[in-house]
């Protein structure tokens, strides 16, 4: 009886252990489907030298598949113009310094409005203004003075064309009048010549007839 009890207990332990061992061998896994890729980071563009008039700019774009990041430097033309003008002025080149600033339309307009137009090919004052008016294409494009001068130049050209056309018409009319005068003078000369010839003929016939009548009266 004791042997049967021990055998039953051993069988139960082995059966439960085998069952526990079978359950513990199960493998479980988790699949992540919504994980985003790393974000593209814009680079840091550092400009240490402030005398070169440049600023840094960076940007990045990130999609579900691809990310792009880039950086550039941007040149400040107005900053360069100011620094160049100051350098020229410091070296005593005052006219050149003003000419450098005059490349800006705002400076050009303000100089023109103040009665001191920007220098042109070494000329200043009224001489420079006259040259600017003849060479409008050299004025900065955004200048309001350029627009006004272009309109004025077109008006002058139209006036010159009209004057030239009128002058040509006047010349043609004068030529016609001269031709008519010449024709009239020729006609008058021919008429005078005919009258002279008729007078000579009459005089030639008058003398014999007078002589014949005198003889008849005698």
Describe the structure.
With 218 residues, this protein is mostly helical. Among the domains are: 41-75, no CATH class; 78-143, no CATH class. The chain contains 6 helices and 2 strands. The protein has a two-stranded antiparallel sheet. Helix 2 (77-90) runs antiparallel to helix 3. The chain is elongated and about 150 Å long. The model is unreliable at 16-25 (pLDDT under 50).
The shape is elongated
Measure the end-to-end span.
224 Å
Topology pattern, helix = H, strand = E = HEEHHHHH
Tally of strands: 2
Output mean pLDDT: 77
- Measured on Cα atoms, how large is the radius of gyration? 56 Å
Widest beta sheet: strand line-up: 1-2
Structural class: mainly alpha
User: Which spans of ≥5 residues are poorly predicted at pLDDT below 50?
Assistant: 16-25
Helix content: 55-70%
Largest sheet: 2 strands, antiparallel
* Relative strand content: 5-15%
Query: Could you state the oligomeric state of the chains shown?
Result: single chain
Q: How many separate helices?
A: 6
How are the SSEs placed, and which strands pair?
Elements: H1 2-24, E1 54-62, E2 67-75, H2 77-90, H3 94-101, H4 105-113, H5 125-134, H6 144-217
Antiparallel strand pairs: 1-2
Helix pairs in contact: 2-3
Summarize, please.
Among the domains are: 35 residues, no CATH class; 66 residues, no CATH class. It has six helices and two strands. Helix 2 runs antiparallel to helix 3.
